[in-house]
Amino acid sequence: MIAVSLMPRSTADALDALARLKSVLNSFSSVQSGIRNPKSEISVELRLDSMRECGLERLLAAAPCPVIATFRPRREGGLYGGPEEPRLETLRRAARLGAAYIDIEQDAMEALGDVRPAKRIVSYHNFRETPADLADLHARLAGLGADVVKIAVTARHILDCAAVLRLLRDARTPTIALAMGERGVLTRLLAPKFGSFLTYASFGDGSPEAGPGQIPLDEMLRLYRVHRIGRATRVYGVIADPVAHSLSPAIHNAAFAALDLDAVYVPLWVEGDAARFVQAMREFEFDGYSVTIPHKQKVMEAMDDLAPLARRVGAMNTVVRRTDGSLFGTNTDISAAVASIEAVVGRGWLRGKRTLLLGAGGLGRAIAFALADSGAHLTITDVDLPRAEALAREVGAVAVRSAFRVPHSELLLNCTPVGMHPDVNASPVPAEMLRKEMVVYDAVYNPAETKLLRDARAAGCRTVAGLDHFVRQAVEQFELWTGQPAPVDTMRRVVLEALGRNT
Q: 59, 110, 317, 397: which has the fewest Cβ within 10 Å?
């Protein structure tokens, strides 16, 4: 079940939000989204503590789905600072008027008393951290006799999510558990897979979020299809730092939906050691990962097996979980890069061409090996000159400190994040360095047309956009994971639509 959290300021605001929510739910027919019965799969949390005045009878009568009544005091992160007994009496009245659930804090449950036929959600909130004793905390709350136990903690690192998922997986009583904040998003998305009683969503209409990191209802339903996630759902994700800009969730979830596969793809904001993250998540049996900046090299340490080319390159962008549970790492960037360039210049064009590669990170490494194998005369530059020099030695290239020292290149490739959203007005080279006879490739795909590509077109260069590379490498990943032909047209359309919204 998905609970849509509303924080209205008044009865009028709440009635308006409930009417709009009813319209949204009616628009999700079973054919469109798989929601069989919105009244059993969607509920609404009314945050009474955000309201100046509250016409409870009118609100409960207008609700289009089951209501969770919440009147959160400041001591638990809410907005109510008044006396306790009027707060509790408001919750009792909500139960008498038909609220399906009453969310009550652990220290006030006894004072609230019996509210049947409504059920009590006993809740604990920690806005500072994820405490180490989650299992003991859960046992203590369950012992209070509530119908549902709720634990909401704060993820300071994505690894905090492991403890929350483990708690959900092992719970023997109805439980809601989530990690708040951007680093905890995967606990909200994967809550149904691990048995959570419900997960929360924002209304996504500009209203305040009731909890940090809440995802808009429309995204939950259309992008992630959370209402269809169950124990058997296969899980994939993109490992990145940062991750908010990534369009990988859009492209892969659209592909899963197009083929009606029971699978979901989630964003994973992994700071620091990506190999440690992958090892920590083994117990949850994620089925595969995309890997992007800055983790394409470090994550190799977590693999049980590597494709020979990925091992040779020393970078990978794809993890496949095999049927025996082992993790296989490979690199779909290599074939995608060459195919994208040759689609513009023709097969065999690269041989003998003077080529300048900007960036010697994971993607730069993959493309450097591809270019060397294609016979290009390669020069490499990077802000980390020793890294550029090391890569140049491996592929038989030349390393330079600055791109300005390579004035006569026939092919220029940007494999750095310079120009990526939101820094869309940045370019890795000045416009005057570009000449009509050059081919210019930019691996950045968000925005679809970077400043580098705009400058190159203005100079009369042929250009290769990162979007084509992105789609090609994603198609290969999808087919490695699923063993099925990818819906290429759908994947390309979704990326174009998403980029159009970002401009």
A: 110
| Residue type at position 377 | H
φ and ψ at residue 445, rounded to 5 degrees: -115, -5
Mark whether 333 is an active-site residue. yes
Instruction: Choose, from 103, 138, 150, 377, the residue flagged as catalytic.
Output: 150
Judge whether 242-331 and 334-464 match in fold: yes
Q: Which helix (H) or strand (E) holds 355?
A: strand 354-358
Query: Do the beta carbons of residue 455 and residue 337 sit within 8 Å?
Result: no
Whether the CB-CB separation of 295 and 274 falls below 8 Å is answered with yes
How many angstroms separate the CA atoms of 245 and 409, rounded? 31
Each residue of 233-262: pLDDT tens digit? 999 999 999 998 899 999 999 999 999 999
Q: What is the DSSP string of 341-354?
A: HHHHH-TTTTTT-E
Let me know if 296 is a catalytic residue.
Answer: yes
Q: What's the DSSP call for residue 266? A: E
Check 138, 227, 295, 296 and give the catalytic one: 296
Residue 204 backbone class (left: φ over 0; alpha: ψ -120 to 50; beta: rest): left
- Which residues, other chains included, contact 11 with Cβ-Cβ below 8 Å and sequence gap of 6+? 51, 53, 54, 55, 58, 59
From the list 103, 333, 382, 455, the catalytic residue is 333
Q: Provide the angle, in degrees to the nearest 10, between the axes of the packed helices 488-502 and 248-258.
A: 140
**Nearest CA among 246, 294, 304 for reference residue 274:** 294
Q: How far is CA 20 from CA 16, 68, 216, in A?
A: 6, 18, 14
**Residue 503: pLDDT band by 50, 70, 90 thresholds?**
very low
Q: Tens digit of pLDDT for each residue in 436-450? A: 999 999 999 889 899
Topology (CATH) of 2-231: TIM Barrel (3.20.20)
Boundaries of every domain in the chain: 2-231, 242-331, 334-464
H helix intervals, 346-465:
362-373, 385-395, 451-458
Task: Classify the C-alpha dihedral 29-31-34-37 as positive or negative.
Answer: positive
Q: Exactly one of 49, 125, 227, 469 is catalytic; which is it?
A: 125
**CATH assignment of 334-464?**
3.40.50.720
CATH number for the domain formed by residue range(s) 242-331: 3.40.50.10860
